[in-house]
Amino acid sequence: MHDEAVVDETGEAVGRVLGTADATPLQFWTAVAPGSYLQLDDVVVTKRELPGREPVTIAGVVTQVRARHEGAQFDSDVFAIADGTLPALVQEAAEITTTRIDPELYVPPSPGALVRRATGDLRAAALHFDRMEKRVPMGTGRDGLPAYLNADFLDGSRGAHVSISGISGVATKTSFATFLLYSVFRSGVLGGDAINAKALIFNVKGEDLLFLDHPNARLDDATTARYAELGLPATPFPDVRVYAPPRAKDSSGTPDVSSRLAGVDSFYWTLAEFCESRLLPYVFADADDERQQYTMVVHAVTAHLARHAQPADGGIGIDGTRLGSYPDLVDYVVARLTDEETRGTWAGSAVNTGTVNAFARRLIASKKDLARLIRGDLAARRPHAINTAESAQVTVVDLHNLPDRAQRFVVGVTLKAEFERKEKAGSAKPLLFVVLDELNKYAPREGSSPIKEVLLDIAERGRSLGVILIGAQQTASEVERRIVTNSAIRVVGRLDPAEASRPEYGFLPAAQRQRVLLAKPGTMFVSQPDIPVPLCVEFPFPAWATRPSEAGQAPSATLRSIVQSADPFAVVGGRSEDEIPF
Fold it and tell me: Quick one: what percent of the chain has pLDDT higher than 70?
């Protein structure tokens, strides 16, 4: 059993299959030879000779390691053994979970069979990398070698969508999502389609994602070398456009960002677009809203606005009344609903006063949150819509300065517009990747809302339309089940102990469930359909700036916004030339 480690063309021998524990085709233990070691996530291989058939190669991943004294009987014997007064041997053993059997003859390995560390082609075969026609680098394994994701399960060919879970601030969910995007775009896996592929990223925390096109000033030679090992250049995203909401109470529509001063465009919706596109339901986007009776009022008022609102000097006109702002529209709708003579026309005759009042209270409360997003004082001709088809390869929509209701509105309306655009195109190409954090807020397990319906649509039909959701959340147990189950790729970073015990993480082996409680930033456990055991990977430090303090000099091409390149005089909407404040 205690052979000295040797090396041959199939890799270093690290031990032999244990004979004191059951060996099965799917799991077995190996005794580790003196002078050798096995750690969690190491890849090993052994062979089983069969009479009259070719040998069976059984490969697997180390999922547990133990060490014990052989010859000790009592717990206190450890002290006598340490003093040298009681003879005993230290023996390490490793649990191997099978990842591949070739040919597929499900027989157990023979006790005593030599176990070798898998390297080169053997490692690639053990982890099914050799079967991946399109491989996306996703980081390095515990052995320091590249680990890959099967792009077929990411681009919709055989599956789609990614679910990333982990504690906020520690699990680096967004960092992994952006690295995965970068790898997809820059690894060549999309071939000629990479040029037209798009990404839509919602930035919900700070201004960290506003500098994806800036090089990271902290990038060192070692990190650059890690990118090279993965076959990737260590550069920022080359083509990024940033959108931010207008500043509150700012009639010029200046983007509400503080750290990035160039290459940022404002997004908003005109009152006419709000009515014509039937966006009112997204004002009521909480899951609680859908359980209330006033949803029938929401749909009735939405239909009435779509039929009767007409564009008028930047605002809208309804029944001869001009409305120039969202608060004006809210006040007008509430007045019509509380008037006995017009209530039936707006909300239907079957709706009682209590239901109307509940709707009105909710609508009035939205004035403060949405007034800067739904405008009647900014030029309709000025570019202001978020449209990935006409944007850069990566579109970042900044939401961090918006209150919760406004964030929901922007996410819901933007995803609805993008999904409808892809439906009309009727083609899965070019691909659109959507990165959305706090998925449990937008698609909670309980209740229903317009945003949740859009996200469900993307999860269930997005694959055929080329819309790929990369969703991140602290707690997968609180996200709508159908969204999680439709995600072919599941990624887990550092987890809270209570969350790690939930059945949503049943795909993690017992040892990995314990390890996710200790995982450091940059370490993720990735489950994909090709590989029976989730892989532990470390992804490199971002080559792009992740905060203003890291931002190097941006390429000059990113410094001009679409407004500046379109019409500098359209920035200030609704003013005459004499009033332009230059």
Answer: 91
SS (H, E, C) 323-361: ECCHHHHHHHHHHHHHCHHHHHHHHCCCCCHHHHHHHHH
Omega before residue 311 within 30° of 0, cis: no
How far is the C-alpha of 397 from the C-alpha of 423, rounded, in Å? 22
The Cα angle at residue 169 between residues 164 and 171, in degrees rounded to 5:
40
Residue 256 confidence class, pLDDT cut points 50, 70, 90: confident
Cα(474)–Cα(168) distance, integer angstroms: 6
* Euclidean distance between CA atoms 284 and 298, whole angstroms: 8
Cα separation, 142 vs 451, whole angstroms: 39
The pLDDT value given to residue 562: 54
- Residue (of 192, 193, 211) closest to 201 by Cα position: 211
In sequence order, the 6+-apart residues with CB closer than 8 A to the CB of 239 are 213, 392, 393, 394
28 contacts 59 by C-beta, under 8 angstroms: no
Nearest CA among 92, 103, 100, 107 for reference residue 125: 100
> Which of helix, strand or coil describes residue 218?
coil
Helix, strand, coil tally for the chain in percent (to 5)? 35, 25, 40
Tokens of 40: 């969690």
Give the pLDDT confidence score for residue 288 in this predicted structure.
55
7: β partners: 12
202 CB-side CA count, 13 A: 25
Contact 208, 158 (CB under 8 A): no
CA dihedral 115, 121, 124, 128 (to 10 degrees): -90
pTM (2 d.p.): 0.87
pLDDT in tens, 383-428: 788 888 888 899 999 998 899 999 999 999 999 999 999 988 878 8
Q: Which of 213, 105, 170 is nearest to 523 (CA)?
A: 170
Q: How far apart are CA 278 and CA 366, in angstroms?
A: 16
Find, among 309, 356, 311, 358, the residue nearest to 336 by Cα. 356
Sheet (strand 321-323) strand order: 310-312, 315-318, 321-323
H or E element at residue 231: none
Q: Report, as an integer, the average pLDDT of 424-436.
A: 89
> Residue 579, exposed/middle/buried by CB under 10 A (0-12, 13-18, 19+)?
exposed
pLDDT single digits (tens) 529-542: 989 899 999 999 99
Token representation of residue 212:
């994806």
Which of 418-437 are b and which e, b meaning 16 or more Cβ less than 10 Å from the residue's Cβ?
Answer: bbeebeeeeebebbbbbbbb
How many C-beta atoms lie closer than 10 Å to residue 161's C-beta?
27
Cβ-contact 44, 115 below 8 angstroms:
yes
CA distance readout (Å), 122 to 57, 101, 105, 126, 128: 10, 12, 18, 6, 10
Task: In whole angstroms, give the CA distance from residue 2 to residue 204.
Answer: 56
Residues 350-379: what's their mean pLDDT? 86
